[in-house]
Amino acid sequence: MALSRRLFVTSAAALAATGLPALPASAAPRPADSRYRIPVGPDDTPDELVRKASQVRPTARQIAWQALERTAFLHFGVNTFTGLEWGTGDEDPNVFQPAGLDTDQWARALRDGGFKLAILTVKHHDGFVLYPSRYTNHTVASSSWRSGHGDVLRSFADSMRRHGLKVGVYISPADENQYLHGVYANGSARSTRTIPTLVDGDTRSPDRVYTLDATDYGAHMLNTLYEVLTEYGPVDEVWFDGAQGRIPPGKVEDYDWDSWYSLVRSLAPDAAIAVTGPDLRWVGNEAGTARENEWSVIPVKENQYGRTDWALSYDTPDEGSRNALVTAQPNTDYLQWWPAECDVSIHDGWFYHPDQLPKSVDDLIDIYFGSVGRNSVLLLNVPPDTDGLLADRDVARLREFRERVDRELPEDLVRGARTTVSPGQVAVDLGTEREADRIRLAEDIRHGQQVESFVVEAYRDGAWTQVTGAGTIGASRILLLSTPVRARRWRLRVTGSRGAVRIAEFGLYRSRV
Description:
The chain is an alpha/beta fold.
């Protein structure tokens, strides 16, 4: 691996430590969306693949999303009341009766747990919709709950914003109800559709009308997206599951990804489209843990009307190394900034089941270090119960989780220390010997992900001694030392990279656990 000839420190804290003025936010470079993926050709050499990978840059929305670190899932719907994980689509809407619904309680618990964005299952695979849609009767409006005037999405969105959280929506492409009683997998051809499609009694006078190619069901999804993205305020993440409905062999719905993506981009330009989407990907498991070396730049292909897909398998142990780029080349359309989201539930199931207990704090902190600590964003599911509340034991566990993270990573010992930057390394002088057992690193991802290997060293007994080392860094890398190391001088030394490395964070911590 070739060592980068330059290394830059760009964090405000590091710049202040060196006596250099920090750039105002308005002067920070804003990556062009066109650089988030670069085409790959069959004649590209291995060196050319690496060069292209070094030039991939995230979009502004991807940078904002990766900075969130901890996000929350809220699986809630008819399954909450039937005890199923995947509904049937023919549920009686009247089963949905969250008499004590309190979305402010959800927001407070998530905020106090350290979460910055929450995603609600507005429509799961069963097709039941948590707001009164014009395009299906399988909604809260068909329930006697709140005399048919309930709107969980409205309450959720208002509560999250009121308590400082960003809003995400999960809208499953699969739809059991539309298969049984509607248009899912009906064999219709794609044709030009007008969105929104006005219905009888529709009083809207939309100022934005779209003509998009879609099947009958694709148009149903487009109308659903239009309602959600125009009537409930700003949305910061749109989450598409990739599942097909549990339908007979030979039946299939080819999803209109290109049209769906286009509509989201127009109506919610700052929203990250996940995880069957162009902005971020599923990490490949539901355990909440990333690969030891997780790349944000990986080879991708397009299929199914523009769907962004893995060039390698979603669960391959290596998605982005030099070897992976070469292995994937015959199947690759682009090298793309496609960072990983690690989803996991606080319970065994995704929907609430009264007999399931939350994961222990030790389990959650292991998940945190295995996701946020490995260049990924954690998506933790906390399902509301049949009363419409987060269970007391879950709320308590979220608070304990936040407190544990704060004890694992208390005050950064590097803050205010003297920092020296030279080719290939960043050195810090703490002024006095201090013990550290947690090391947090980050690249300035505005300039891509470049580090392929590095070591962290401490100056002890007159010599530099390696304390730890690893491969990738990316937006966030946290290393745990089994035994605290005591030293005054520390340094990060990059031993392999794809291009010029810019380090945004080099933090040292002494855990209080």
